[in-house]
Write a structure and sequence with these properties.
Blueprint: H1 13-37, E1 47-48, E2 55-57, E3 60-62, E4 65-66
Antiparallel strand pairs: 1-4, 2-3
Length: 67
């Protein structure tokens, strides 16, 4: 079963694209520290699957994680 996370509150399309670009790059590396200290997550890395195209559905960007 797959689960989804929706982050709302971005004011522009450019902010959304900048956020996913950051997460795909440096954010993936920084997130591992948080994963290490969490008792409820059984992974230490959640990378963006760059082999799947990002898609826009109305005002929402859909990106996929590579777990």
């Amino acid at each position: 079963m797959d689960y989804e996370l929706h982050i709302k509150g971005f004011k522009t399309k450019e902010q959304v694209e900048e956020f996913i670009s950051w997460y795909e790059g440096q954010g993936e590396q920084e997130a591992s520290v948080w994963f290490e200290i969490s008792d409820n997550i059984d992974v230490d890395f959640m990378g963006v699957d760059v082999n799947k195209e990002y898609t826009w559905r109305e005002n929402a960007l859909e990106a996929h994680l590579d777990l």
